[in-house]
Amino acid sequence: MPTDALFWHRLQFAFTITFHYLFPVLTMGLALLIVIMKALALRTRDARWDDAARFWIRIFGINFAVGVVTGIPMEFQFGTNWARFSRIAGPVIGQTLAMEGLFAFMLESSVLALLVWGERRMSRAAHFACALLLFAGSWLSAYFILCTNAFLHHPVGHAVGPDGVLQLVDARAFLTNPWAAMQFAHNQAASVATASFVVAAVGAWWLLRGVHAEVAKRCVTLGVIAGFAASMAVAFPTGDLQAKAVAKHKPASLAAMEGRFESGPHAGITLIGQPNVAERRLDNPITVPGMLSFLAFGTFHGDVAGLGAFPEDQWPDNIELVYYGFHVMAGLGTLMIALMGFALLALVLKRLFATRALLWALALAFPFPYVAVTAGWMTAELGRQPWLVYGILRTADGSSPTVHSGTALFTLIGFMGIDFVIGLAFLWLIARELAHGPGAPAGTKTEVAHA
Length: 451
Prior knowledge:
mainly alpha, two-stranded antiparallel ribbon, two-stranded antiparallel sheet, 15 helices, 6 strands, 6% strand
């Protein structure tokens, strides 16, 4: 068992942020789909769209609440486990973290209460306006967080003080960081894809069980159309822009993502292979010639640097995880596009609701985007290593020197236990909502009106 405190600090943060992100990755995309449902309800006067929106607002509320609870430990870890990082980078990244809490989170939480409990006391237009505000708050929150993360990958708008502490000198450059814009577009497309797969999966499950058929068809229709569009957007243009930015600014990370040790033009993209770091080669590779050069530089003749072109102390410190994380993300992304493409074709041909095999595929595919998003974040964050702030602060220099490995391991075990209990409660709440189905909670006036 590792005794290095830094290992446990990193593992603890990786666990807490991975578990936490399972919830906002759904709510961000779901906020957009709820707006679409409410807009369709307003336009068509179709009460089934209202029922669908009402159900997904409740699912949003459960995910939002659990996301808040699981996000609290991350805030504390900046001070407990990463004190040197907080002291050095806090004057910069603290700005966007504070803005997220004061503006975006407060807006999101306030209008969510109106959406959940205020429908019978508001006009349809006012309730739709609340959905728009929820969407705005959710995506604004995402931008502030991603702006913080983008600074760690591509620091701009700062100066280094005489004591080594970073100072914000250009707020505009910091808030309009081009890395943040690319990251935001890619992340939000992935969140919409996640929500679309979940919405389609629930609708498909209801159809397979023969319940809530009219609302289920609307969920599947919206999920398939939005899911195909979002899955395509994850790959192109947002994923393509991210790949080119990594190639330009972090070439060692790109080399790790492809398990590439040798430099040269006509670089192929690897479909299958196993990185052999000890012998600096990729075992059993199956590649598409020239595609990596094209993806990175827009030309098949582009010269792609391998890991051998960089000192080993600048390599990502877990090349295998970076490589496999990237390929899991890319592989699942391809499957997601293919599945939603087939489903969309069947929908256009009016065969989707009668094709049980395709409905089963949609119902069982909802974990795909969760796994892909987790693998993508793992690729990005492990690819940034060995830096906490790229080119400025190394990870080894950012942890809390007075928190030893035993303390970090103890709190990690505690977080795992707490999150296990939270996870069980979350699953129970979701199962209860799925069993109840769309429409208003039992016994309310809205439900009686639709009966």
